[in-house]
Structures are given as structure tokens and as C-alpha cells.
UniProtKB/TrEMBL annotation:
<dbReference type="InterPro" id="IPR002937">
    <property type="entry name" value="Amino_oxidase"/>
</dbReference>
<protein>
    <submittedName>
        <fullName>FAD-dependent oxidoreductase</fullName>
    </submittedName>
</protein>
<dbReference type="GO" id="GO:0016491">
    <property type="term" value="F:oxidoreductase activity"/>
</dbReference>
<dbReference type="Pfam" id="PF01593">
    <property type="entry name" value="Amino_oxidase"/>
</dbReference>
<feature type="domain" description="Amine oxidase">
    <location>
        <begin position="109"/>
        <end position="333"/>
    </location>
</feature>
<dbReference type="InterPro" id="IPR036188">
    <property type="entry name" value="FAD/NAD-bd_sf"/>
</dbReference>
<dbReference type="Pfam" id="PF13450">
    <property type="entry name" value="NAD_binding_8"/>
</dbReference>
Length: 346
């Protein structure tokens, strides 16, 4: 296919790739997204079971930056976000305590991927297209997918995927970018989901409206009551359980059934009081091989939250800034500004 001049390809339609794409599109620049998944979303993906919709990656977003806060207002207006959780708890030695801070938190409605689907609206996206190789032809770039399809030519290629995967794409073309990717360690995380036919019992010392709790167990760091999120209709009681990163790393090759059982047992043990939970009606687990970046892995603070090379290759995503949705979005947004000559404060 012949593309107009200045056409940008973006590999990865997670929140970072989409933020970059929207900045480019807003400046009138042609942009095409490629994602190996069934649709946009990446780590904001949700699983739709007959009896429940479950967020298996990010559970909510939090807001610190003013530019991100303005974008959040637009998404609230569009109806794809809602304030959540409003009842957050922490496990302490004295039992569960209500967690209070001034941070604003919101989740996607009716599921986390509603936000990325909203951001992808009107953009050209090739889903189910895993890009395996980049080819350079004179001054232009071509993308080769897993089925041998060749896409291009493009003047610019933005790679908005976890750094370990980005490294494989850039290594044959740019040793400096490959070295930068190698310095970012992206750690794995297991997430389990557990469904019940009966509601959870009242926990001693805990209000019945609890929506999420931070835990300090060896296996488990966070538990979320998925069915209490905005837009979940009348689906039954369902938990999402996020494992600790070190625990996940040690059990990376275990089966999902074993992991789900272990995390459910860890949750049961972490409950305040002598409580027995109802028997789960279904459970499962999902492995995120590149879940959370450790951006200071190289020992240096990162002062630019994307990478842009003269040869037309660029990198963005949470690995270049920090471990949250806000970081990933800002990285992609700032790269979009840099590519279009716009300005934004980091
Ligand atoms: C379990 C878990 C819980 C989390 N909880 C929170 C939370 O509560 N709050 C919060 O703020 N953040 C949370 N995060 C972090 C947050 O999800 C990420 O920081 C953010 O989503 C990263 O976005 P991204 O666009 O950089 O990458 P991704 O979302 O990973 O997007 C990359 C995309 O690239 C695609 N891709 C990869 N390789 C290729 C290829 N070769 N060809 C084509 N496509 C490719 C993938 O399919 C994916 O869609 C959590 C993450 C995990 C895993």
C-alpha cells in the first residue's frame, strides 16, 4: 500500500499508543495503529464471561498531573469513566482500616477497556496483527506482521509496547534504543478472579460497602470487588486478586488453576476475624509477563518520558515514565506533542 507523506505507524494500542495517536490525529497527521490483541486496551483489558465482566489488568486510574486531569474530565463527560473506588481499605496489624488520601481514582465503565475503546474511536487500527519485524527501505519504514503481511511505507514508527518486546523490534536498527530498552525492567504479575453465587459475609470491623483492599500478604497485594464497579449491572459477587510481583516471578510458569487457588487461599487467610468464605462458583488466573515497569532499573532517574531517534523510530509507554495508566498516557501524549511540534510540560 502507498501511504501519504508523514504517515506514522504505532505498534501497540494500549493507553500510551492511543494517547500518541490522538495527539497526531488532532494535528491532522495520518496515523495507523497495529495491535496483536483482539482490540485496543493492552493492560486495561477486561474478560467477559457469561456470568461476569472482570478487569484483569489495571483496576482503576489515579490522577496527579494537570494535563492528565483535563483529559480525565473529557472521558468522564464521554461516559466511559466513573469515580471508583470510593471505599478503599488497607490491611494493618490492627485489622482493616479505611484508606483515606486526597487522590482522585476512577475506573472504566462498564469495564476498564471502555476507556481505550473510546480513545480508539475514529482511528485506523489493525487488530490481531502482531508486528514481528521492521524493515528500512531508503528513508522509509515497513512493518512485517506474524503472517508475513507487509505494511507501509511509514516515515515514523512509534513503538508503544513493553520495553523487552520493543527491544527485539529496534535492536537490528538502533543499538542506542535497544540499550535503553534493556535498562527498563518490566516485572510479571499474576491476577486471579473468583466468582461466588452468594454474597461475601460481613467482616468484623469492616463496613459492608468495602470495594477494594490493599493487603501485605506474601502472595497477595490487592483485592477488588469487581461487581461493585460502576456499570456492572446486577452481576454476582466477584473478586479480582492481584499477586505480589516477587511471588508472581517465582511462580511464572505455574498453571492458572494452581495460581487462582493459591491467591484465593491467601485472601481467605488475610481476612480479619475468623471468617469462612462461601465456596467459589468459578475461578481462574491471568499471567501478565510484563506487568509493571521498574523505570529506575538503570539507577538513573528518567527525565524524558519517551525516546525519539533521528531515524524515525520512537518509543513510549509506562516503562519510560512510571508504573501507572497516567504515566503511560503522559508518555504517549508527550511523544505526540514532540512529533507534531506541540508543547507540554512534563
Ligand atoms: C495486573 C495489573 C494491575 C495494574 N493496576 C493498575 C492500576 O490499578 N492503576 C494504574 O494506574 N495502573 C495499573 N497497572 C499499570 C497499567 O495497566 C499500565 O501502566 C498501562 O496500562 C500501560 O500502558 P501501555 O500502553 O504502556 O502498555 P500496554 O497496555 O501493555 O499496551 C501495549 C500494547 O501493545 C500490544 N503489543 C505488544 N507487542 C506487540 C507487537 N509485537 N505487535 C503488535 N502489538 C503488540 C499489546 O497487545 C498491547 O495492547 C496495572 C497493570 C497490571 C498488569
Amino acid at each position: 500500500m502507498t501511504q501519504p507523506q508523514n504517515h506514522t505507524a504505532i505498534i501497540g494500542a494500549g493507553i500510551a499508543g492511543l494517547a500518541c495517536a490522538r495527539s497526531l490525529a488532532a494535528a491532522g497527521r495520518p496515523v495507523t495503529l497495529f495491535d496483536k490483541g483482539r482490540g485496543p486496551g493492552g493492560r486495561l483489558s477486561s474478560r467477559h464471561l457469561p456470568q461476569a465482566t472482570l478487569d484483569l489488568g489495571a483496576q482503576f486510574l489515579s490522577v496527579r498531573d494537570a494535563t492528565f486531569a483535563a483529559a480525565v474530565e473529557e472521558w468522564l463527560e464521554a461516559g466511559c469513566l466513573a469515580e471508583w473506588p470510593t471505599s478503599l481499605w488497607s490491611a494493618t496489624d490492627d485489622g482493616w482500616q479505611r484508606h483515606r488520601d486526597d487522590l482522585r481514582r476512577l475506573c472504566g465503565t462498564p469495564c476498564m477497556s471502555a476507556l481505550t475503546r473510546h480513545l480508539a474511536t475514529g482511528l485506523e487500527l489493525h487488530a490481531r496483527t502482531r508486528i514481528e519485524r521492521l524493515e528500512r527501505d531508503s528513508r522509509e519504514w515497513w512493518l512485517v506482521d506474524a503472517k508475513g503481511g507487509r505494511h507501509g511505507p511509514f516515515t515514523q514508527v512509534v513503538i508503544a509496547i513493553p520495553s523487552a518486546q520493543a527491544r527485539a523490534l529496534v535492536a537490528p536498527h538502533d543499538t542506542a534504543l535497544a540499550a535503553a530498552c534493556a535498562a527498563v525492567i518490566q516485572r510479571p504479575c499474576w491476577t486471579a478472579w473468583v466468582l461466588f453465587d452468594a454474597p461475601l459475609p460481613t467482616l468484623p470491623g469492616v463496613d459492608d460497602d468495602w470495594q477494594a483492599v490493599r493487603l501485605h500478604a506474601p502472595a497477595l497485594r490487592f483485592a477488588v470487588r469487581n461487581h461493585l464497579k460502576s456499570g456492572r449491572g446486577d452481576q454476582g459477587e466477584g473478586l479480582t486478586l492481584l499477586a505480589n510481583l516477587e511471588w508472581s516471578k517465582a511462580r511464572l510458569e505455574d498453571g492458572p488453576e494452581t495460581i487462582a487457588e493459591a491467591l484465593f487461599n491467601a485472601f481467605q487467610r488475610g481476612l480479619p476475624g475468623d471468617i469462612t468464605l462461601p465456596e467459589p462458583s468459578a475461578m481462574g488466573a491471568h499471567r501478565w509477563r510484563y506487568a509493571q515497569p521498574d523505570v529506575f532499573a538503570s539507577g538513573e532517574a528518567v527525565n524524558v518520558d519517551y525516546r525519539l531517534a533521528r531515524n524515525g523510530l520512537a518509543l513510549c509507554g509506562d516503562g519510560w515514565r512510571g508504573p501507572r495508566i497516567e504515566d503511560a498516557w503522559l508518555s504517549g501524549h508527550h511523544l505526540g506533542d514532540a512529533l507534531t511540534g506541540g508543547s507540554s510540560a512534563t
